[in-house]
Each structure stands twice: as C-alpha cells, then as structure tokens.
TrEMBL record:
<keyword id="KW-0560">Oxidoreductase</keyword>
<keyword id="KW-0520">NAD</keyword>
<dbReference type="InterPro" id="IPR010061">
    <property type="entry name" value="MeMal-semiAld_DH"/>
</dbReference>
<dbReference type="InterPro" id="IPR016162">
    <property type="entry name" value="Ald_DH_N"/>
</dbReference>
<dbReference type="InterPro" id="IPR016160">
    <property type="entry name" value="Ald_DH_CS_CYS"/>
</dbReference>
<dbReference type="GO" id="GO:0004491">
    <property type="term" value="F:methylmalonate-semialdehyde dehydrogenase (acylating, NAD) activity"/>
</dbReference>
<dbReference type="InterPro" id="IPR016163">
    <property type="entry name" value="Ald_DH_C"/>
</dbReference>
<dbReference type="InterPro" id="IPR015590">
    <property type="entry name" value="Aldehyde_DH_dom"/>
</dbReference>
<dbReference type="GO" id="GO:0006574">
    <property type="term" value="P:L-valine catabolic process"/>
</dbReference>
<dbReference type="GO" id="GO:0006210">
    <property type="term" value="P:thymine catabolic process"/>
</dbReference>
<dbReference type="Pfam" id="PF00171">
    <property type="entry name" value="Aldedh"/>
</dbReference>
<protein>
    <recommendedName>
        <fullName>methylmalonate-semialdehyde dehydrogenase (CoA acylating)</fullName>
        <ecNumber>1.2.1.27</ecNumber>
    </recommendedName>
</protein>
<feature type="domain" description="Aldehyde dehydrogenase">
    <location>
        <begin position="16"/>
        <end position="479"/>
    </location>
</feature>
<dbReference type="InterPro" id="IPR016161">
    <property type="entry name" value="Ald_DH/histidinol_DH"/>
</dbReference>
Amino acid sequence: MQEIHHYIDGSEVKGTSGRFSDVYNPATGEVQAKVSLATKAELDAAVEKAAAAQVAWGATNPQRRARVMMKFAALINENMDKLAETLSREHGKTLPDARGDVQRGLEVVEVCIGAPAMLKGEYMNDGGPGIDLYSMRQALGVVAGITPFNFPAMIPLWKMAPALVCGNAMILKPSERCPTTSLMLAELLKEAGLPDGVLQVVNGDKEVVDAILDNDTIQAVGFVGSTPIAQYIYGRAATNGKRAQCFGGAKNHMIIMPDADMDKAADALVGAGFGAAGERCMAISVAVPVGDKTADALIERLVPRIEALKVGPYTAGDDVDFGPVITAQARDRINGLVNSGVDQGANLVVDGRDFNLQGYENGFFVGPSLFDNVTPDMDIYKEEIFGPVLSQVRAQSYDEALDLIMKNNYGNGTSIYTADGDTARDFAAKVNVGMVGINFPIPVPLSYFTFGGWKKSAFGDLNQYGPDAFRFYTKTKTVTARWFSGIKDGGEFAFKAMD
Ligand code: NAD
C-alpha cells in the first residue's frame, strides 16, 4: 500500500504519528494509498523550520520572488497532464475538468508574477511641514492554508501563490482525501527556486488543524471548506489573535426569467448543476424559473439533457460528463437527501438513485437527479447537497425569486438568465450574494478580481486572490518621518494636527 507523507524542508518526510487516513480511487472504490496524519508536535516542528526559512525569503526582493512564480507557472503548464491525472485519480472528476482545476489555480500564479506592483505601498511627501508619510506592506511571517477536497489544485494554488510571493512561509494542510496534488505542486515550487522550508505541506485531520489554530507563530489562516468548519476555524483563529479568512459552503440559485433564451438556460443549468458531480461551491443547485410557463418549458428542456448525461470514470475518455462523488459516505448522504425530497413531497422528475455502472459496481457513482416543485422548508432546499441533484423552486414573480435568494443562509454565487438589461441590473445591484452571473452560470471571477461569498459562505473581510490576497497576506506599517535641519526645537507633548 502506497504511503503519502509530508513535505518538509524541501523533501518528503515520513509521518511519525502512526495514524493514517485512506485515500480512495472514487471510480473503483479501492483504497489506493494511505496518508499520514500529523501530530501537534510534527506541526510545531514544521512551523519552527518555516519561521527560520521565512527570514531570508521575506528579505528577498519582490522581483526575485516573482521570478519563482514565473518559473512555477511554466512548470505547472509543463506538468498539466500529470497534475490533472493525479487529481482525477484521487478526486474522480473528468480529465478536462481536472485540467480546468489546475488552470484556474495557474491563473492566480500568473497574477502573482506582478506582485511587486501590488506590494509598493503608499507615499505622501509634505504631509506636514517637512513631514513625509509612507506605508509599507510587509510579510506576516508564517501563515497557514487549509483546503477542501473538491479543487485539489486550484484552491491550494489560491492559497500558496499569493502568500509566498508576499514573502511569507506557508504551512499547507490539504484535504486528507486528495493530498497528492499539493505535494506535486510543492516539488514544482522547489524546482522553480523556492527555498526549502518556505512551503511545508503537512497532511492531517482535525488534530493538525487544531494545532495550526493554536500555534502562536502562525499569523494567519486561510481556510476553504464546509460552513460549520469554516465558522469553527474563524472563531478559534480569531480567539488566538490570528487573521482569518474562512470560505464555506453554498446553495447557489439561478433565476430564469420568462424572456430568457430557454435552451441556453437549460444548457447552463445542466453544466453548472451536474459538472464535477455537483461537488463545486459554485455549482447551481437551485433553478428558480419565474412563472409556471417558464418552469414547464425549462423542465421540458432539462429532462432529455439530464437523461443524456454520461456518468463514468475519468479513464473512460473526454465524453464523460461527470465522475463519481468523493466517498461512499458522500454517495449515501446524497441518496438519503434525494429520498427525503421524495418523502417531503417534491416531484422527482429524473431519478439518479440506484445508478449502476458495469465494471465499476464498487465506485462511488450517483446518477443525476432533477426535482420540481421544491419548497424552502424541504431538506433538499435547506442543505448543501454537494452532489448531482438539481432542485427547481417555482416563483410567480421576479420579486418572489429575488426574495428567495435574499433569505437563503448562503451567499456564494448566483445567476440570472434574462434578455432584459434592466432586470439584470436590478438583480446585480440588490442581491446579497458575493458573485453574480448575468446569462453566465458559474461566475467565478477571473484571477485579477477577487473570489468570495457573503452570509454563511464566508467568514472574514477579505476575499481570495486578486488585490485582496495581497492585503490579507501582508500587514501595513506606516512611517511618519521628519528630518530636522540640525536645529533641535525641543519635544512636543500634545497630540495635535500637523500644522
Ligand atoms: P470540509 O469542511 O470537510 O474540509 C475542509 C478542510 O477542513 C479539510 O482540510 C479537512 O481536513 C478540514 N476539516 C474537516 N473537518 C474538520 C474539523 N472537524 N476540524 C478541523 N478541520 C476539519 O470540506 P470538504 O468536504 O473537504 O469540501 C467541501 C466543502 O467545501 C463544501 O461545503 C463546499 O461548498 C466548500 N467549498 C467552498 C469554497 C468556497 O470558496 N466558498 C470552495 C470550495 C469548496
């Protein structure tokens, strides 16, 4: 059985805890490796070494740090297929989707090549008589990234690239379900010139996460995962005086107005609802057509499209639409929620339960399901299903559809399909959700904007990547400087305006 270790000081290091977690191939259901779960002592030792390595890295000029990112971007491109294959083997997503996972992470690395421009700080000469003010953006020291299973390349890259280019050292704790991609990325970073110890990949579960949160040297924690864990991490990190940005779960709605292009809306819903088996924080899981005529027209278009979806292992070729879900527990939970939808009175139009794939009977496959007449009191509406299940909630007006989204606990992404610019503008202005698509189903912003949800989808006040990342991973120091011309006037004791 293959063992997956930690990556400390530029090389693979065996864990000492004797505790492991199974890493599955979700397509076959087989355990393909065991990943070491670190102890608090292992984490503390990794942090100590990271802190030592950070001193020289933080003092390296930004242009040189940016060059490491430039080389890293080239190496990611060179290794794209290898990274995607590794990722698919542990996660189950199709190869084209896995390449997209790497690509959207790579784009953040590309923005980090321009880091020196983001790290310049501010300057004002003659803010008072003979007084100049300037602010510097300085690295925090050692920071941590804790990432989920569903984007094994993209989210670690969203964490590590900005943190490192700002001059920090990072402890990365990837998902124990898909750890290998992060280890590969760490090796590529070394090849790109990152000094040993500046990035430490420490594998583990709650034990190591708690050790991160309680470690006094770690200055900031960037987390992505489910809402209950995001809220927990935010609270404990803040109590311990750390900066924290914690991104959580989602329930993303798409409004379909009567004037929308229905075929385009149906295509978008199928891709955004079922791509990656619905295991995306930006998946559309709720369709909200306005008016029964729109709802009926949508169902008529969705059913054949959903029934034609090809579900299979990533090895079956590029025409597979989505793969298995991550674990047997995830599969059983999704099927349980579909059962609850039926019990609570929703209309199951396409039934993905009991999906069976010949030759892959032990894989964690779930077929696609479509519900109509879902209401907000049902568990399938309230829970983030994180599986290939699309729910249609019928609204009778635009205001009712908007109100539904406004009242939902989550606020990650949302979308509207309409031909009317006025409705689209009103929606974008009013909706209390962080990322909005207009005739666009998965509005993950490009890497020079920022990514973040509202409400229970994010805790903390800065978004991931883009300009916010440079603010999150640096602290500001502001200097007020005066140079006397050789004459000492004596001290000033009153706190006064600079006049
Ligand atoms: P998860 O919350 O189970 O795990 C995320 C990380 O937290 C992992 O590294 C895991 O080891 C750790 N963890 C798990 N339980 C913990 C505990 N009790 N104490 C401390 N640490 C713990 O999430 P997941 O299942 O890996 O990922 C799916 C979730 O992530 C979904 O809810 C999805 O919406 C969300 N997600 C959000 C975003 C976003 O940007 N908002 C992006 C991707 C995924």
